[in-house]
Amino acid sequence: MVATEFLLDELTRLESLHRRRFLKTVAQESAHRIRYGGRELANFSSNDYLGLASDARVKAAAQAAIEAFHVSAGSSRLICGNLEIHERLESGLALLKMEETALVFSSGYLANLGIITALTGEGSQIFSDALNHASIIDGCRLSRAQLFVYRHQDLDHLERLLQDAPAARRRLIVSDGVFSMDGDVAGLPGLASLASRHDCLLMLDEAHATGVLGSTGAGVGEYFVERGQLPPGNDCIDVAMGTLSKALGSFGGFAACSSHLREFLINKARPFIFATALPPSAAGAALESLKVLREEPFRRESLWKNCRLLKKLLVQAGFSLAGSETPIIPLTFGTESAALRMSERLLERGYFVPAIRPPSVPQGTSRLRITVCATHSTDDIEGLARALGELAQERE
Ligand SMILES: *Cc1c(COP(=O)(O)O)cnc(C)c1O
Hints:
The chain is of the alpha/beta class. 44% of the residues lie in helices and 17% in strands.
């Protein structure tokens, strides 16, 4: 036996299941244009919803932050890495999220690990949606809390689990705000009511909601207030987690919450305590993106206009969009190989839309995950819908 034999065995096994993953080397010209394999393609897979990662002002702000604060923060926030630019960014995030304060982490993934493990632990209970993001699942596992997984968006099931669970010291309900592979929005009014009736903390992961949902981009809370399903000024989310790496076009994660909760996280969240602070360039870029978000609401309007157009065309072409309410549009093909084949055929036609397979999504639901950006042209969108319609007909 050779000690490393299992490496190739496992890769071969994944290959036979069409689940092996390979890195693709690309060059990004903008949120919606990508160079791959020597060709320029329309990209429908970026999370850079508003096109801010390539915005000249955001890039200049990242460079200015390097000049002012250097390349690295040099240590964790609690040692000597807490820079003025981190605190300005946190004030800006708190303002956007309409929360008292915010705390920045080195990535969204680490924010989820940090918040969940700090707020729970042995003797606590976590109630988690079955389709929550992997970083939430990992936070739950690491916390050693008792885990209750409720069926996706099934609040009756959640309520039954809450009622039947034994008494516990602390309870946390956690959900994606926008589900990252399905594009549906968490039923916040129902979750908030259950959290308050069953004495739970409520945490929402707003990675795909921040900058996208609501007229100012504040996220899921604003979305439901504007639909008249939550009272204005309500404060039903105890901790809104978010990332700087999607609509804000930068890198890093955050928690928006009360100042007590922030102080608690500074003392208890291990990924905050034991990781080097966010690089100044990432903080500077995100700060500038927050300004663009406030001053240029037309970006969000273009995003939603593009989103409505693509959905209309896909429905006309006979596709079912499942429950998508956002710029994340899943087209489910079932098997890994069917989804991969569709992705390859789209690539031939000039569209970059990767296939998403287990373990990112449940077995039997392999899909194309389309994301729409503010910067796509009408031609891009009409072209993708046409290509998908023709490919689907060929399959029949
Ligand atoms: C992307 C994502 C994260 C992780 O954020 P990063 O900043 O990329 O680490 C967490 N939760 C959800 C729902 C996401 O989509």
